[in-house]
Amino acid sequence: MNNVRHCVACGSLFRPLPHVPNQRYCSASNCQRERRRRWQQQHMRADADYRENQRRAQASWRARNPDYWRQYRATHPAYRERNSALQRKRNARLRSGVVANMNASHIAPPLASGFYVLRRASEIQIAKMNACIVHITVLSPPGGPSAPDCKEMM
Question: Could you name the domain of life of the organism this protein comes from (predicted)?
Fold first, then answer.
């Protein structure tokens, strides 16, 4: 079994075509579909011209088919129900989290100067008006003694 490879998509063994020396996918239709999908994803990330062309083509299609999704939802009740259930879950998750808007800040005493750790919040929350949600851990208490082993503070 000389020159046999594993398909990147399905993992099965295949013999590459002689005129395609770097073939990585077997000829199965699902694997070829996966190859094209990955190629398109890579180009959408890396090629601004391709991205813009796709955006224009999709906008043109939507203009020619304005009622497509309305008709699809009307003729596919299972799709509509699944979509509604997922939206209810998203809404419940958002309602349970903290929502920040322009008037959301609570009056609290200002933090004293000190050392702080700034890291991205891991919970999914909504922030409006470009608000940043951060977790601040105080490493040195305000007005507390400096650490004796810190050379810069001696």
Answer: Bacteria
How many whole angstroms from its chain centre is CA 54?
20
Higher-confidence position of 148 and 53: 53
Q: Longest C-alpha distance within the chain, in Å?
A: 75
Q: Whole-angstrom Cα distance, residue 14 to residue 22?
A: 13
Rounded to two decimals, the pTM is 0.48
- pLDDT of 93-102, one tens digit each? 888 765 556 6
Rounded Cα distance between 122 and 129, Å, is: 19
**CA-CA distance, 118 to 138, in Å (whole number)?**
10
Q: What is the DSSP letter of 140?
A: S
Q: What is the 3-state secondary structure (H, E, C) of 61-94?
A: HHHHCCCHHHHHHHHCHHHHHHHHHHHHHHHHHH
Instruction: Compute the chain's Rg from CA coordinates.
Output: 27
| 14 contact partners, CB below 8 Å, separation of at least 6 | 4, 5, 6, 7, 26, 27
